[in-house]
Amino acid sequence: MVRARQRRGVVISTIQLPADSTVSADELHDVCVALIGNPNAGKTTLFNNLTGLRAKTANFPGTTIERRIGQARIAGRQVELLDLPGLYSLTSDRPEERLVREVLLGGVPDQPRPAAVVLLMDATNLERNLYLASQILELGLPTVVALNMVDLAERSSIEINPERLSTELGCPVVSIVARSGRGIEDLRERIGQLVEPPHGLHVVGAPNDLSDCIGCPFKARYDWAESVSARCSNGRPMTHGQQTERLDAVLTHPWAGVGVFLGIMLAVFALIFWLAQYPMDWIDRGFALAGSAIGQLLPAGDLRSLVVDGVIGGVGGVLVFLPQICILFFFLALLEDTGYLARAAFVMDRLMRRVGLPGKAFVPMLSAHACAVPAIMATRVIDNWRDRLVTILVLPLFTCSARIPIYAMVTALLFPHQPVLAAATFTGAYVMGIVAALGTAFLFKRTVLPGETKPLVLELPGYKVPGLKTALLYTYDRARIFVKRAGTIILVASIILWALASYPKSDPPASAESLQAEAGRMESAGDREAATAMRAEAADLAAQSRLANSFAGRLGRAVEPILRPLGYDWQIGVGILSSFVAREVIVSTLAVVYGVGEAAVEEDPRPLYETLERAERADGSPVFTVATSVSLLVFYVLALQCVSTLAISRRETNSWKWPLFQLAYMSGLAYLTALIAYQSLRFFGVS
Smallest Cα–Cα separation from 573: which of 584, 585, 557, 587? Predict the structure, then answer.
């Protein structure tokens, strides 16, 4: 049955759908309910209110667009709630909007068509939200409208008649405040009552006035939205007040805005380093204690080594960065919820566009100085896929916290008694990473991933007090993704590297056995302190011998001819190979190779630095010359050397193609630049 009415030259027809399109109450536990709405309408807050922690995040099949699915208790039954990306229209060409259209039409593999829709609308701007509503209702899916932010509308003297709006749309309308939870229970009840034949809305258009104009369906929808808004509310959309305008005059200023943004970001990252160091130490100590306790329970042998060194050491090496990730995403969630992050993207867009990237890429680039893993995850704020991919590819070039132990080691070798020069070299390494990242992005946008950066078009939301619950749930979700996805791949890689460093077995060298025997005699004589020191030295010699004769040691010797032009020997080669699990592992690996002992280095790295300074090649020449040290520093500034980053790149690009390309180009760039640095210094007589 079709009922039609004409308003302001626009014909609106309401279509009574057949009874078999409804969802019975008994079937609700099997259905998927889609949550959809404009950006900044409060969709994430509503989703969290309905689902709590019962949500999981993944990508839609064959895409890199995030899919959030949660379980909500509706009318005594479990209902699957699907959080779709925010959008303004179903007819746009943007990937997210094309995907939403396909989901609602049932055209996405492994994603059933939603049986009902919760359409979230911003009460402070009803007319704009009605445009999307006209398209959603036209699909004929059972729909309930959640009219959010009615508290803000009331404060602005905007009155909306929900009953009249429900009559106009042909579906239930519930007034809510997602932030405080007001009206949420009524909304749950309405979702559970989607059992009556719904009314689909179809905008026919105005034959006389619009049939000859280009884009008349758009004009018809806008006219309809305007007329419905006028009949159901008493006011125009809420406008920003003088206070907002004064803030925007500073925060979006071409120069002052940049200064404010840099100040805020520096404060955030200072807090990340300051706040994260305590839980990072706790996690590190916790895994060390766990390894020690399990090591005492298990008999000496391969199983204990696998569990303690491979599993616990590998997982601990990843989870130690979890506090940084949690703090970063917590602050990003707060900044986004206040409405500031959109303004930051607007301010930085002009600067970033010079290298071919949008302003939104600046936040991930800043966070990459803490860790590339959360930075790559943060690229989801970038709408354009090519821009996002270029950002992902260059983010590991920024100096992360894992590189700091390597920089400290190399600068100590170069300038052991000149702290000013050491600090300048340290800073130079940071600058080199930034220049390399921006230069590579500029190059990629003109070669590998060509295309003009689209003009930045975004909505500046009103300023709000951030919701703590929303920020915490967002942080929990990001942390869970990191642990689940990156942690599993890291674990496998750690076990493989452990096996390479542990096999084949070899007998301890004679020098280690003689030290053990001497330690026994010293202990019998009552000198336990000397005996303990001798046993530690014997253990270091045995570990050094095992590593030298292992598959990892053999690989180090195999790649030595390739690395020799950079000034490296097989010991450094073993360090480079082992550090692929995490860059800083090269420090502990060199400690084992040169017989200092990993445990000793954790307490005080200076003995390692002194040993490396004295290290000699077979011909008696020093290993760590100025040229070799500079080459090693340059190599680690540019090399990927991080399986966590590779794993996250795989997840975010939904393919191994780009992570492998990332590994190849960064390894090639690091090798070539280190080669130039070493050979140039040698050419000018700096050995």
Answer: 557
- Report the number of distinct structural domains present in the chain: 2
Q: For residue 181, tell me if it sits in a domain.
A: yes
Q: What b/e string do you get for 551-587 counting C-beta neighbours within 10 Å, with b at 16 or more?
A: ebbebbeebbeebeebbbbbbbbbbbbbbbbbbbbbb
Separation of alpha carbons 397 and 434, rounded Å: 7
Give the C-alpha separation, 12 to 203, whole Å: 5
Task: Give pLDDT tens digits for 282-309.
Answer: 887 888 888 888 888 888 888 887 888 7
Span 374-397, pLDDT tens digits: 788 888 878 788 899 999 999 999
Strand ranges inside 103-227, DSSP E: 116-122, 143-148, 173-175, 199-205
Cβ partners under 8 Å of residue 495, min gap 6 = 306, 310, 311, 314
Cis preceding-peptide flag for 504 (omega within 30 of 0): yes
Looking at the structure, do residues 278 and 230 belong to the same domain, yes or no? Answer: no
Write out the residue range of the structural domain in which residue 138 sits.
2-238
Task: Assess contact for 309 and 498: CB atoms under 8 A.
Answer: yes
Phi, psi of 370 (to 5 degrees): -90, -55
Instruction: Give the rounded distance of the alpha carbon of 110 from its chain centre.
Output: 25
Domain of 63, CATH number, reads: 3.40.50.300
Cβ neighbors of 435 (< 8 A, separation 6 or more) are none
Whether residue 200 is found in the same domain as residue 270: no
pLDDT at position 212, please?
A: 41
> What is the Cα–Cα distance from 123 to 177, expressed in whole angstroms?
10
Q: Average the pLDDT over 441-462 and give the result.
A: 81
Residue 366 burial (CB < 10 Å; 0-12/13-18/19+)? buried
User: For residues 681 and 377, what is the distance between their CA atoms, to the nearest angstrom?
Assistant: 39
User: What b/e string do you get for 372-409 counting C-beta neighbours within 10 Å, with b at 16 or more?
Assistant: bbbbbbbbebbbbbbbbbbbbbbbbbbbbbbbebbbbb
Q: In terms of domains, do 263 and 304 share one?
A: yes
Domain-ending residue, one of 199, 223, 238: 238
pLDDT at 586: 80
Clarify whether residues 128 and 229 are in a common domain: yes
> Which domain-ending residue is among 238, 260, 291?
238
266 and 282 part of one domain: yes
- Could you tell me where the beta strands, DSSP code E, fall in 26-142? 32-37, 55-59, 66-74, 77-83, 116-122
Q: Shortest CA distance to 96 belongs to which of 108, 107, 87, 105?
A: 87
Q: By the 8 A CB rule, do 22 and 115 touch?
A: no
Dist CA 403 CA 585 (whole Å): 10
Q: Please name the helix (run of DSSP H) or strand (run of DSSP E) that holds residue 4, with its range, or none.
A: strand 2-7
Under 8 Å CB-to-CB from 162, ≥6 apart: which residues? 147, 173, 174, 175
Dihedral (CA of 577, 581, 586, 588) sign: negative
